[in-house]
Amino acid sequence: MAEGTSRTAPSRSREGRIPEGARQHLGSELRSYYASMLAEVQPSTLLELIARLDGAPYAREAADFRDRLLASLPGLRAFALSLAVNHAVADDLVQETLLKAWKNQDRFEPGSNLQAWLCTILRNQFYTDIRKRKREVEDADGTMAGQMVASAAQEANSELQQVKQHLAKLPAAMREALLLVGAQGLTYEDAAELIGCQVGTVKSRVSRARALLARSLGMDTRSTAL
């Protein structure tokens, strides 16, 4: 029995831990991937939507709030892409988020983090959509993930596209936590606050996501640590 235990324990340890070199390389890849999302040209449909919000209610403060939405758009869309991966799905999420934010701007607390508020609205919508899809189609692994991979496979097979394709195969909750911490640089505490879960949950998701992604990218995940 002791012999069996000695074989099992290291295996579980390796599953959640990867060597420091692989971890740093993976972090660099994730940051490059996130930077590429931030650098993308924002869709004209979203820019035009924000411009049209000028004539909506709350006219006295509308211009300032609209400008802040515009400034938040690259980060918001990058967050949507980190969740949905598929550009069409992400843009739909951003559009819905902008409309909800505008309609409920009186609920935004002045002086607080607008980007975090917008991301919370977006992620709530994302998981609402997932629940709707699961009610419509039984798919334990997520129908959306399959659609993302199919879409990504059509794109150029560059190193970043490989990262994107393998990210799409991760469960959404793991992908979200990994990109918030590993790409955006949020602390575990800040990520937990945005997601609405315990810090330990975020750490576990990030650790498992790192290991899964590193292995799928062909990195050496053998750790010499005890």
Automatic annotation (TrEMBL):
Example GO BP: DNA-templated transcription initiation
UniProt cross-references to Gene3D superfamilies, sorted A to Z: 1.10.1740.10, Winged helix-like DNA-binding domain superfamily/Winged helix DNA-binding domain
Biased composition (Polar residues): 1-11
GO molecular function: DNA binding; sigma factor activity
Coiled-coil intervals, chain numbering: none
Keyword Transcription regulation: yes
InterPro entries linked: RNA_pol_sigma-70-like, RNA_pol_sigma-70_dom, RNA_pol_sigma70_ECF_CS, RNA_pol_sigma70_r2, RNA_pol_sigma70_r4_t2, RNA_pol_sigma_r2, RNA_pol_sigma_r3/r4-like, WH-like_DNA-bd_sf
Superkingdom of the organism of origin: Bacteria
Amino acid composition bias (Basic and acidic residues), ranges on this chain: 12-22
Pfam families the UniProt entry points to: Sigma70_r2, Sigma70_r4_2
RNA polymerase sigma factor 70 region 4 type domain ranges (all copies): 161-213
Domain RNA polymerase sigma-70 region per the UniProt entry, residue ranges: 73-135
Region (Disordered): 1-22
Annotated keywords: DNA-binding, Plasmid, Sigma factor, Transcription, Transcription regulation
PANTHER family given in the database record: RNA POLYMERASE ECF-TYPE SIGMA FACTO, RNA POLYMERASE SIGMA FACTOR RFAY-RELATED
Family: Belongs to the sigma-70 factor family. ECF subfamily.
NCBIfam families membership: sigma70-ECF (TIGR02937)
Name of the protein this chain belongs to: RNA polymerase sigma factor
Organism per entry: Methylorubrum extorquens (strain ATCC 14718 / DSM 1338 / JCM 2805 / NCIMB 9133 / AM1)
